[in-house]
Amino acid sequence: MKLAVLIPEYPGQTHIFFWRELGAMRELGALPEVVSTRRPNAALVSHSWAREAMASTTYLAPPSAGDLLAMGREAARRGPRGLASVAGSVARATGVDSKGRLRLLGLAAMGAKLASLARERGWEHVHAHSCADAAHVAMFAHLLSGLPYSITLHGPLQDYGPNQPEKWRHAKFAIVITRKLLGEVETQLRGSLPGRVEIAPMGVDVQKFVRRGPYAAWDGRGPLRLFSCGRLNPCKGHGDAIAAVGLLRARGIDARLEIAGEDEQGGAGFHRALAADVAATGYAESVTLLGAVSEERVRAGLEQAHVFVLASLAEPLGVAIMEAMALAAPVVATGAGGVPELVRDGVDGVLVPPETPSALADAIERIARDGALAERLARSARDRVVAGFDSTRSARMLIEHARSV
């Protein structure tokens, strides 16, 4: 079937999961085309496949003169009924003021462009991989043209802006990535949910994500290599991971931490604050901020690491954690959010409370000083991902539900 996948600012630094899922969809016989709201910040485009992805992506903004004409034709195609549906939806919008309603009209114009593209290219369905503005665009395309759409929730509802009931109630189906998020939407959006809301976690290609050599635990000689991966934002807890490095070094362990990821401003935001903290604490030789790097560099860091660390304040699930587990690296992560649905504490990794650098340091040291434990966690982590977090799972569910629609 022909369908479109709508991804905001694609391809961004955290979009490796989408690239994998699109590949899995093609292998399963679907013909997905990618649409995005706008191009990403050039400083955040680091993946080896990014140029190919951008070349095959249609961007809704900024609109051209031809786009404006097509949008006008699409808005007029259904006549007063389609425009009335849009006006009614804007009037019903919750959590927005008058300025916000004007903004919704702008998103409705993007929805008209999406509907026009669907008619031109024969798309039978559009899936919005976001519950923020992308979901609004898909919703308005549906109201104007009848184009069916679905959505995926990747994190807490509060992170995706206002007007959630309206975006969900028009969708044909929805996917959430954890049981925790399913409980959240069932509580907060009761009466506005589509008939089907399914759980499908993000995943990795377990056939390709295999270590090139066996995992080797730290033997007490040389640096203890730690690796972390996540955008540079206070919510990722990188400051706590850096503090844990300081505690380990004070205990006589030569801990060295690499952090892969960049801030939303392409290095001009939180990166600077974090770099200043590293310099001020004297950890410049122990902590390296890699910035936005390719998946090959992330993979190399994971394969060289003795322990993977992610100190997020609340991680919805964690593709970075999955990648570390798939490559059989022992994981130390915070147990907030949906992480316990991925990492079973003491079985597939070690979970600690968020914002507790001392607990983080204790867990890292425990794994570092116990090679048998490190190797057991590494093996179990790989088995866990293979059993339940293959990227084909979400692709198959999306295709099956879209076909049924």
Element layout with pairings:
Blueprint: E1 2-6, H1 16-27, E2 31-36, H2 50-55, E3 57-59, H3 65-77, H4 80-92, H5 98-121, E4 125-128, H6 133-145, E5 149-153, H7 164-169, E6 173-176, H8 179-188, E7 197-199, E8 224-229, H9 238-250, E9 255-260, H10 270-280, E10 287-291, H11 295-304, E11 307-310, H12 319-326, E12 331-334, E13 350-352, H13 357-369, H14 371-388, H15 392-404
Parallel strand pairs: 1-2, 1-4, 2-3, 4-5, 5-6, 6-7, 8-9, 8-11, 9-10, 11-12, 12-13
Number of strands: 13
CATH first level of the largest domain: Alpha Beta
User: Which residues form runs of ≥5 with pLDDT under 50?
Assistant: none
* Share in β-strands: 5-15%
Q: Look at the structure and give the mean pLDDT.
A: 95
CATH superfamily of the largest domain: Glycogen Phosphorylase B
CATH domain fold name of the largest domain: Rossmann fold
What is the end-to-end distance?
A: 11 Å
- Helix segment tally: 15
Order of helices and strands: EHEHEHHHEHEHEHEEHEHEHEHEEHHH
Structural class, by secondary structure, is: alpha/beta
Question: Quick one: overall form?
Answer: elongated
- Determine Rg (CA atoms, Å): 22 Å
Relative helix content: 40-55%
Kindly report the spatial arrangement of strands forming the biggest sheet: 3-2-1-4-5-6-7
Number of domains: 2
Largest beta sheet, briefly? 7 strands, parallel
CATH architectural arrangement of the largest domain: 3-Layer(aba) Sandwich
